[in-house]
UniProtKB/TrEMBL annotation:
One of the GO biological process terms: actin filament depolymerization
The entry's keywords: Actin-binding
Cited SUPFAM superfamilies: Actin depolymerizing proteins
A GO CC term assigned to this protein in UniProt: cytoplasm
Organism domain of life: Eukaryota
Ranges that cross the membrane: none
Protein name as it appears in the record: ADF-H domain-containing protein
Taxonomy of the source species: Eukaryota, Viridiplantae, Streptophyta, Embryophyta, Tracheophyta
UniProt keyword S-adenosyl-L-methionine present: no
PANTHER family: COFILIN-RELATED (PTHR11913)
Domain ADF-H: 55-189
Length: 189
């Protein structure tokens, strides 16, 4: 039996990886096994290498992706509100909405003076009387929020959105009228 181990530590530009960093077993993932030749391929990734966005330095918590997949595939939630935790330097789930909640419940869950990302699963009926659904990504940055917060959310938005595979429509809103139900309906078709 042979084992192939690949170690990918995060190394600063002018710093060499120490042997302690290279031999860390944290983040161990088995990539593939081959029953015929008894080979196992293993990938070891340093936990600090999970930074999602080099521009803003914000990581994306795994729970964000898991909750989004549940919304998309299982329709477990109507909406998800995401928040950037500046001290932890990562995007986290702040609130989830049950499938029975309305669009008004969703808009009420967004703070009036703080930025947030949100995903909303909008159900509608077409002119041909077909039931459809669109997943909206909403970047909520009210004019009354702090400038630093606006800059962090703006610089992290594209990378975070790429982490959520399956977004169909994107909206940027600075006040409630820019993401009213009439705007959502017109963008869904």
């Amino acid at each position: 039996m042979s084992i192939t181990v690949t170690i990918l530590p995060r190394v600063a530009p002018n710093k060499k990886a120490s042997s302690a960093e290279s031999s860390s077993s944290e983040g161990l993932s088995i990539l593939s096994t081959n029953a015929r030749s008894s080979q196992v391929s293993v990938l070891v990734v340093d936990r600090t290498a999970k930074m999602a966005n080099a521009a803003s330095g914000m990581a994306v918590h795994d729970d964000c992706k898991l909750k989004f997949l549940e919304l998309k595939a299982k329709r477990t939630y109507r909406f998800i509100v995401f928040k950037i935790e500046e001290k932890q330097k990562q995007v986290v789930v702040e609130k989830v909405g049950e499938p029975a909640q309305s669009y008004e419940d969703f808009t009420a869950s967004l703070p009036a003076d703080e930025c947030r990302y949100a995903v909303y699963d909008f159900d509608f009926v077409t002119e041909e009387n077909c039931q459809k659904s669109r997943i909206f990504f909403i970047a909520w940055c009210p004019d009354s929020s702090r400038v630093r917060s606006k800059m962090i959310y703006a610089s992290s938005k594209d990378r975070f959105k790429r982490e959520l595979d399956g977004i169909q429509v994107e909206l940027q809103a600075t006040d409630p009228t820019e993401m009213g139900l009439d705007v959502i309906r017109s963008r869904a078709c």
